[in-house]
Amino acid sequence: MRAPSSDLPVVFDGVSLQAGATTILDCLSLTIAPGAPTLIVGPNGAGKTTLLRLCMGLAVPSAGRLTWGGRTNTAPTRRAILFQRPVMLRRTAAANIAYALAHAGIPRGRRPGRIAELLGRVGLLDLAQRPARRLSGGEQQRLALARALARDPELLLLDEPTANLDPAATRGVEEIVLMAAQSGIKIVMASHDLGQVRRLGGDVVFLVRGRLCEQGSSEAFLNTPSTSEAATFVRGDLVI
């Protein structure tokens, strides 16, 4: 029995994406490889969300080539994406996960145990029967993470998942993300929070106006940025 193909590395080879006359990503060449989290950072409008959508296969390049594990046009069965404001189904927390498991093709008999495992993993087991839309913002984001993990992804794409959360809720989400990374899941996460970049570690991809401006370890990016734009961003000043 042949092992499933991997979606990693994800390789952007001169990828551009345009919307009308607007260039959102401009000739991006980048390799996202297995390992520590990759943090996508940059000012608003830099193209962070678009990069994640391309990784997921939700957008198609206007130019260039994008491959997953050396292949093009692969079904995103080993990928999952979580947006800043996830939509909760009008069901309980447990039923939200059951829906994700059914969609992933998990046999019905295996779902109850998997639901309990996932809810426990994100600290929501005691809230299994609570309507998902009555959960707090942080709890909803953790439930959304559990739904994404239900797909057993190799690649988990996160679009500023803590942007609207208080510090305690942010910490809870970050702990889940780090545990997922430690389990072997490749995390690619857009963030505007430099403190979060420091806490999560890994690699940084710094975008400005749709172009790759700097790439390297989070430590180097934060402490010894090599471009003036990165130095400006790290200082907290506006990047024009």
The CATH class: Alpha Beta
| Name of the CATH superfamily | P-loop containing nucleotide triphosphate hydrolases
Query: How much helicity do the residues have?
Result: 25-40%
**Tally of domains:** 1
Termini separation comes to 54 Å
Count the helices. How many? 8
Topology-level CATH name: Rossmann fold
Which overall shape is indicated by the principal axes computed on the Cα atoms?
globular
| Portion in strands | 15-25%
**Oligomer, anyone?**
single chain
Give the low-confidence spans. none
The CATH architecture assignment turns out to be: 3-Layer(aba) Sandwich
Radius of gyration from the alpha-carbon trace, in angstroms: 18 Å
Spatial strand order of the main sheet: 5-6-7-3-8-9
Secondary structure: number of strands = 9
Write the element-wise H/E pattern from the N-terminal end onward. Answer: EEEHEEHHHEHEHEEHH
Main beta sheet: 6 strands, mixed
Tags for this model:
240 residues; alpha/beta; Rossmann fold
Folded structure, characterized:
- This protein has helices at about 50-55, 95-105, 110-120, 135-150, 165-180, 195-200, 220-225, 230-235, and strands at about 10-20, 20-30, 40, 65-70, 80, 155-160, 185-190, 205-210, 210-215.
- The strands form 2 sheets. The chain has a 6-stranded mixed beta sheet, with helices on both faces.
- By secondary structure, the protein is α/β, with parallel strands linked by helices.
- It has one domain (about 10-235): P-loop containing nucleotide triphosphate hydrolases (Rossmann fold), CATH 3.40.50.300.
- The model has no long low-confidence stretch (mean pLDDT about 95).
- The radius of gyration is 18 Å and the shape is globular.
- It contains 8 helices and 9 strands.
